[in-house]
Specification:
The chain is α+β, with helices and mostly antiparallel strands. It folds into three domains: 4-110, Rossmann fold, CATH 3.40.50; 139-208, 2-Layer Sandwich (Dna Ligase, domain 1); 214-451, ATP-grasp fold, B domain (D-amino Acid Aminotransferase, Chain A, domain 1). Helices cover 33% and strands 27% of the residues. The chain has helices at 11-23, 63-75, 96-104, 114-121, 123-132, 148-158, 181-199, 256-273, 304-311, 315-323, 403-416, 426-432, 436-440, 447-451, and strands at 4-7, 27-32, 47-50, 84-86, 108-109, 162-170, 173-178, 204-208, 214-222, 228-240, 243-249, 277-285, 291-297, 340-347, 349-350, 356-357, 360-362, 364-366, 373-377, 383-385, 392-400, 418-420. The strands form six sheets. The protein has an eight-stranded antiparallel beta sheet with strand order 13-12-9-10-11-14-21-19, sandwiched between helices. Strands 3-2-1-4-5 form a five-stranded parallel beta sheet. Helix 4 (114-121) packs across helix 5 and helix 6 packs across helix 7 (181-199). The chain binds adenosine-5'-diphosphate (ADP) (2 copies) and magnesium ion. One adenosine-5'-diphosphate binds at residues 89-90, 94, 169-172, 243-244, 297, 301-303, 390. Magnesium ion binds at residues 282, 295.
């Protein structure tokens, strides 16, 4: 087993990985930017390394500095090398080159092989893999678009509206809808430019825009001995601007047959891609209940606690064990969906003001608690929210036997939760958890935009 793991991330996910390391008797090592110097979770760790200024490009995205830190940690005590790096999510988590660099330096990258990441991480290539695995994808281009004419012809064939996507996109960025040829023409030019700036890669592809869908994704785990299991689905339909706000499992919007089909499809995709570690396959489900594969996430996801609560399986621990070459200690038959878990992402954003990110000092932070309640957060009284990073302050997860009880629990928790004076998404959630449509379980990805236009 590993003795020491460097965590190449920050915030709540860094703390989540620290906790998993401690329980496995592994020493966590952290890197931090100058902006995060005072973060409380760093005090739990013996070895920490500053890797540069606030800007991610100068710190959390600097693979050279991160690997140097891993080597320095070992140099201080040569008998104890840094065996592995956990990338968390975002930053370098889906960077195949970084995975290669780590392994070239004899440090295990806690994630899939660089090869599997290249195949599934690129969204256009992932569609090709899906076809090989006989999984239905959204009608659209085979691979990336060669030129605008190809896009026009394809859009004509599959019908408007269409979605133009950056092949290297993620985090809800690089997605655009076009409802006519004129719009598509403008969109292609803009999307190309934006993708180049945001992802340093201007490859685009096109797919049919599915009207009023749900977002349902399947969590998988695969070890390096050929065992693949799924851990059922998460429903992440409550979104704003293609970004998730609330996630739950089981999905209230699919029947048991669709659930079984999706889970099987995810296992096939995993096998065809030769994928190992934890991963997620995302689908949109149309208004008639038909699912289409959209993309794979070759990393741990923000909403992984939802699955941990209903299955009782620690996904970060599993990632670490798999990376260390161990066999998964359970089989598919051991994995059950127990009860209902719902998560709210507590973001430092003003929902009444177009989800504008809010920065500044949190003077009072009082998370909720109680039976079946989990709060994953790195925040504390006096925490300074930086405008430089993701606005996620933490995640509130509740776990109850039924959806009705989970909703009641979430309402109570949201009422209890105090974050002052920084604005957060909590007031919006208080309304959502009292909204009839949400309570009924019948809603689509337009729920927030439609019901809360301001
Ligand atoms: P999840 O699928 O785990 O819900 P999100 O889409 O919310 O993930 O992304 C998690 C974090 O990773 C966010 O900070 C997001 O901005 C970032 N992220 C995800 N994909 C990319 C990408 N391709 N490029 C840059 N950042 C990304
Ligand atoms: P990202 O990499 O940014 O997560 P995704 O391809 O996963 O991008 O899409 C993000 C969200 O955009 C989905 O959860 C869904 O709400 C919406 N979306 C993506 N593709 C389609 C589509 N073809 N039709 C309708 N909505 C879509
Ligand atoms: Mg996605």
């Amino acid at each position: 087993m590993f003795k020491r793991i460097l965590i190449a991330n920050r915030g709540e996910i860094a703390l989540r990985v620290i906790r998993a390391c401690r329980e496995l008797d592994i020493e966590p090592v952290c890197v931090f930017s100058e902006e995060d110097r005072d973060a409380e979770y760093l005090k739990q760790v013996d070895r920490t390394f500053c890797i540069g200024p606030a800007s991610p490009g100068e710190s959390y995205l600097r693979s050279d500095r991160i690997i140097a830190a891993a080597e320095l940690a070992a140099a201080k005590e040569p008998s104890l090398a840094t065996d592995a790096i956990h990338p968390g999510y975002g930053f370098l988590a889906e960077n195949a080159q970084f995975a290669d660099q780590c392994r070239e330096c004899n440090i295990e990258f806690i994630g899939p092989s660089a090869e599997a990441m290249r195949q599934l991480g690129d969204k256009a290539t992932a569609r090709t893999i899906a076809k090989k695995a006989k999984v239905t994808t959204v009608p659209g281009s085979d691979g990336v678009l060669e030129d605008d004419d190809q896009a026009f012809q394809l859009a004509q064939k599959i019908g408007y509206p269409v979605m133009v996507k950056a092949s290297a996109g993620g985090g809800g960025r690089g997605l655009r809808i076009a409802r006519s040829k004129e719009e598509l023409e403008r969109t292609l030019a803009q999307a190309r430019q934006e993708a180049m700036i945001a992802f340093k890669n201007d490859a685009l592809y096109l797919e049919k825009f599915i009207e009023n869908p749900r977002h349902v994704e399947v969590q998988i785990l695969a070890d390096t001995h050929g065992k693949v299991v799924h851990l059922f689905e998460r429903d992440c339909t409550i979104q704003r601007r293609y970004q998730k706000l609330i996630e739950e499992s089981p999905s209230p919007g699919i029947d048991s047959r669709t659930r079984a089909d999706l889970c099987k499809a995810a296992v096939r995709l995993t096998r065809v891609a030769g994928y190992t570690s934890a991963g997620t396959f995302e689908f949109v489900v149309d208004a008639k209940g038909k699912p289409y594969f959209i993309e794979a996430n070759t990393r741990i996801q923000v909403e992984h606690p939802v699955t941990e609560m209903i299955t009782g399986i620690d996904l970060i621990r599993a990632q670490i064990l798999i990376a260390a070459g161990e066999k998964l200690p359970f089989t598919q038959r051991d994995i059950h969906q127990n009860g209902v878990a719902i998560e709210c992402r507590i973001n430092a954003e003003d929902p009444a003001n177009g989800f504008r990110p809010c920065a500044g000092v949190i003077e009072k932070f009082r998370p909720c608690g109680g039976f079946g309640v989990r709060v994953d957060t790195h925040v504390y009284d006096g925490y300074r929210v930086s405008p430089r990073y993701d606005s996620l302050l933490g995640k509130l997860i509740v776990h109850r036997p039924t959806r009705t009880e989970a909703i009641a629990c979430m309402r109570r928790c949201l009422d209890e939760f105090v974050v002052d004076p920084i604005k957060t998404t909590i007031p919006l959630y208080k309304e959502i958890f009292r909204h009839e449509e949400f309570i009924s379980g019948k809603f689509d990805t337009g729920f927030v935009a439609h019901n809360f236009p301001s």
